Amino acid sequence: MGLADSGALKGRVALITGAATGIGRASALLFARAGARVALVDVREPELARTETPTPVNPLGVKGAGETGTIASTAAVANAVVDALAPFGIKHLDMPFTPGRVWEAIRSSGR
Q: What is the DSSP string of 26-48?
């Protein structure tokens, strides 16, 4: 008997990142079938738009360039972790979310 349908993860909570596709999705389905409550996280690919407005002011014809940051993904993962810990009464957890820090928060919650 494999992990699926075994109930081996009953009562456990699993945070699965990359859960929308591929290995992350397969892991989420497997863990759920094995009895875990799963918290799923995924980051959608950014939708990029391109606008070109050349300028005659310089030889390259460019006005400037920009790049979006990935800092928002940190907040999204932090919120997902805290949401997953809500059943334990945890409303805040300092980063970084190390396994030890998460486990200590759960253990200290008394639930």
A: HHHHHHHHTT-EEEEE--PPPPP
DSSP β-bridge partners for residue 13: 37
Say if 63 falls within a structural domain: no
> Residue 19 class from Cβ within 10 Å (0-12 exposed, 13-18 middle, 19+ buried)?
buried
Average pLDDT of the segment spanning 13-25:
88
Domain span at 83: 69-111
Say which residues have a Cβ less than 8 Å from residue 32's Cβ, sequence separation at least 6: 38
Round to whole Å and give the CA distance between 82 and 95.
11
Torsion of Cα atoms, 25 then 26 then 31 then 35, to 10°: 100
Residues 41 and 75 in one domain: no
Inside any domain, residue 53: no
pLDDT top residue among 61 and 110: 110
> Nearest Cα to 32, choosing from 69, 67, 58, 5?
5
The reported pTM is: 0.47
